[in-house]
């Protein structure tokens, strides 16, 4: 559906996108993840034909974006980070206007406008001035515009930035439902967003692709080793003696504990061997009781930090599609689906947007 080959974008001497190649298959929701400045917006702007690449090619549904931009652009609906809206219009007026600009046939225009109003859940505010709408609704007006003409691919640049937690949940729900009818590419630097919404993840760092896999597989990348954190009461030498020869243990570090008379122990072990029982019996045998034992699970956030850490061996290996990881992985903590869904009040104004944005930023594990 989308094939990007050796894409490069230079701004003067600065390489914003550095020989990027990837393919996007039909019917998936892709997350484009990367820290600020990684090159996400630049890449999206090239895919949507807003800016030209310095080198490389972009094929959209068989149309070359450089040679046949009109046909290629017809396959794409784009919601930029700040949607360009005419705020003195109502959503209905704006969408009719946008439909005309997009060249939608007159006899289909009204039906199409009503369809996108329904898909973006704008019915309740379609007759209000855009400038009086909340940020969440404004974003949905931008989304509705992107949906006009039923493009195969929808590209969303940081679609939840500045929205409050309830609006974020609404927007994510909308994106998931869009994924049933369109291929969706969504850029974000918010990990929870990607893991909550996307099937596949492309991780960018310094303009390069450092990982490309399903959200689940990326989480599993770190399952090489299990890390246990223990607090054990007793003499360090006795504890060391007990833990020295436990099968499956690969590395142990001892530190003073905040707990009086205790030692904190960090153990890395092979995930194929269950070491916890043996640790318990060995420590019991030397009369060193375990006050706490926690198995640490790595999150997608840890994967992300390892992959985007500058110049690390991990990044290099990920690029070569080798398994670069050394610890256990888990991404349960990233899901926020348990949060109650709230309905936004139609016509809500922007007065609290700034504060809502802050809340949203705190609410997410925003890097
Ligand atoms: N028009 C421009 N002129 C010069 N440098 C630019 C321009 N646009 C982007 N850059 C630089 O290119 C790099 C990539 O920027 P880009 O906006 O694509 O990153 P991003 O991953 O989208 O980051 P963010 O999440 O902050 O939007 C950055 O170093 C940025 O400063």
From TrEMBL:
Instruction: List the biased-composition ranges (Basic and acidic residues).
Output: 332-348
Which PROSITE patterns does the UniProt record give? Answer: ABC_TRANSPORTER_2
* Top-rank taxon, per record: Bacteria
Q: Which UniProt keywords apply?
A: ATP-binding, Nucleotide-binding, Transport
State where composition is biased (Polar residues): 312-321
Compositional bias of kind Acidic residues: 349-367
All residue ranges annotated as the ABC transporter domain in the record: 2-231
Q: Where is this region: Disordered?
A: 312-367
InterPro entries assigned: AAA+_ATPase, ABC_transporter-like_ATP-bd, P-loop_NTPase
What is an example of a GO molecular function annotated in this UniProt entry? ATP binding
A Pfam entry, by short name = ABC_tran
Task: Provide the family line.
Answer: Belongs to the ABC transporter superfamily.
According to UniProt, the name of this protein is ABC transporter ATP-binding protein
Q: Which organism is it from?
A: Coprococcus intestinihominis
């Amino acid at each position: 559906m989308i094939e990007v080959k050796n894409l490069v974008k230079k701004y003067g001497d600065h390489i914003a996108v550095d020989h990027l190649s990837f393919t996007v298959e039909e019917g998936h929701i892709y997350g484009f993840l990367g820290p600020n400045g990684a090159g996400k917006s630049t890449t999206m702007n090239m895919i949507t034909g807003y800016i030209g690449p310095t080198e490389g090619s972009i094929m959209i549904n068989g149309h070359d974006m450089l040679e046949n931009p009109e046909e290629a652009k017809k396959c794409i609906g784009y919601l930029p980070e700040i949607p360009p809206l005419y705020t003195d219009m109502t959503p209905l007026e704006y969408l009719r206007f946008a439909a005309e600009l997009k060249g939608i046939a007159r006899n289909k225009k009204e039906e199409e406008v009503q369809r996108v109003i329904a898909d973006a859940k704008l019915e309740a505010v379609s007759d209000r001035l855009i400038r009086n709408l909340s940020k969440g609704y404004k974003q949905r007006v931008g989304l509705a515009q992107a949906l006009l003409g039923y493009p195969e691919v929808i590209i969303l640049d940081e679609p939840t930035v500045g929205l409050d937690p309830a609006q974020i949940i609404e927007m994510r729900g909308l994106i998931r439902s869009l994924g049933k009818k369109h291929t969706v590419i969504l850029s974000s630097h918010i990990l929870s967003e990607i893991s909550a919404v996307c099937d596949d993840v492309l991780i960018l760092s310094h303009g390069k692709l450092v990982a490309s896999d399903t959200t689940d597989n990326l989480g599993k990348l770190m399952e090489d080793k299990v890390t246990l954190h223990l607090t054990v009461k007793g003499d360090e030498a006795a504890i060391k003696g007990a833990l020295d020869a436990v099968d499956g243990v690969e590395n142990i570090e001892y530190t003073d504990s905040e707990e009086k008379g205790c030692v904190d122990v960090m153990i890395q072990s092979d995930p194929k061997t269950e070491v916890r029982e043996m640790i318990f019996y060995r420590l019991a045998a030397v009369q060193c009781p375990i006050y706490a034992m926690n198995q640490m699970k790595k999150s997608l956030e840890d994967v992300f930090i390892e992959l985007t850490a500058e110049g690390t061996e991990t990044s290099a290996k990920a690029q070569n599609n080798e398994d670069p990881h050394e610890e256990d992985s888990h991404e349960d903590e990233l899901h926020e689906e348990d949060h109650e869904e709230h309905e936004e009040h139609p016509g809500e104004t922007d007065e609290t947007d700034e504060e809502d944005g802050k809340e949203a930023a705190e609410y997410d594990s925003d890097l």
